Amino acid sequence: MLDVFGDFSTQDPATALAEAVAACPFQESAENGGIYALRADDVRHVLTSREFWSQSSSDQRIDSLPEVDRSQRRRLKEFFAHWPVFSDSDYHTQVRRVALRLLRAAVTPALLTACATVADDRLAAMGEGSVDWLTELANPLAREVVAALTGHSDADVLIRLGRAVMDELATPRLDMARIERAITAVDGMRDWLRAARTAPRTPFVAGVGELWDDPAFGPEVATALLTQVVTGAHDPTATALCVVGERVTGDMLTRTPVPQLREEVLRLATPFRFANRYARVPVHVGPYHLDRGDRINLCLATANLDPKHYADPLQIRDRGASRSFSFGAGEHYCPGAPLARAVVDVLLESLKRLGGHFHAEHIEREPELPMLRYRTLQGRLLRSALPACASPSYAPTGGSEERF
Asked: What pLDDT is stored for residue 55 in this prediction?
């Protein structure tokens, strides 16, 4: 039984996830409702089926809250409904098209060269002593991505606001303190965009500003897209870069091509471990009957560890062109996937040029299972006798959208 509400700060959650998917395909939840689908085939079916969508029904958990708390929860939920990842129908198609255009345009040689410089410089500065990979490399490299999208001067402010939103998304429970902080952060995002759109520093901000001024979308939609992109560009990127530090060895860098190694890193990272879907019509999933509006919780992380699809699922292997569920599937496939892949490639190439890998000695993660985030990744950079590679010549990668 997977403990969805457990504390995974000091234990490797991948082990629990792998054991859960090997044991059973479904799990029922008494606390937050709905069933959990754990295996790859069921997860793929629901993600790609027209019988389900992301548009949520009423949340019965708020019934016991005081009215003021119910109002705040509804306010935040209505804001999340504007995110491309949580929306459907014509609105989803339109705002997703904007997100794809803006994010694809961000994957430029200039960005990748800047990221390579950060990675090379940060790795070169690591001596023989113990360092925190998260603070010394992963966060600075993820910040470079946010800065490229929004401008360097305010990147730290936006990352801080985004983290408050991520804190709320990470918990499987209703936590009013987190909800209040997230609402305050959203207000901060809106205030920032209101000012930034008048003199945009980047094409991305200019594009989001156009949404703000478009009567078909408006300020709330523009703020929602900004918030989803900032939260998705920083914390999940830093998580994937930490998985490189925790799991990738020098031997892997030598023997496994970077594209295949990157896909394994992303498979094991799965920063967002769950995706909720709601039945549009009465439907059966496995032995369960769902009425219209019933929720099913899809565990992307267990699907990525399903031994039927990934032999030795906890091991990094060359799996060819295999793709995982880390970016979802179907109409809600993550529009930022090409950017995330490109940044992980940058770090892997930098490690290959350096001729070394990181040896993790102490790891602490945020406790919540729904989202993989690191608190610290302490260890040492080990330089080996790997052959040095030529300096990279970067070009945008992953330009085509991939679907299951």
From this structure: 78
Domains of the chain from N-terminus onward:
13-383 (1.10.630.10)
The DSSP output letter for 387 is P
Q: Using CA atoms, how far apart are residues 229 and 100, in angstroms rounded to an integer?
A: 11
pTM for the model: 0.92
CA atoms within 13 A on the CB side of 45: 12
Answer positive or negative: Cα dihedral of 296, 298, 302, 304: positive
- Mean per-residue pLDDT, 251-278: 96
Report, as an integer, the average pLDDT of 179-185.
97
Longest dimension (CA), the chain: 64
Tokens describing residue 261: 């190694």
Burial, 281: exposed, middle or buried (Cβ in 10 Å; 0-12, 13-18, 19+)?
A: exposed
Residue 34 has a pLDDT of: 82
Q: Taking residues 258-267, report their average pLDDT.
A: 97
Burial class for 343, CB neighbours closer than 10 Å (0-12, 13-18, 19+): buried
What whole-number distance in Å separates Cα of residue 193 and Cα of residue 222?
8
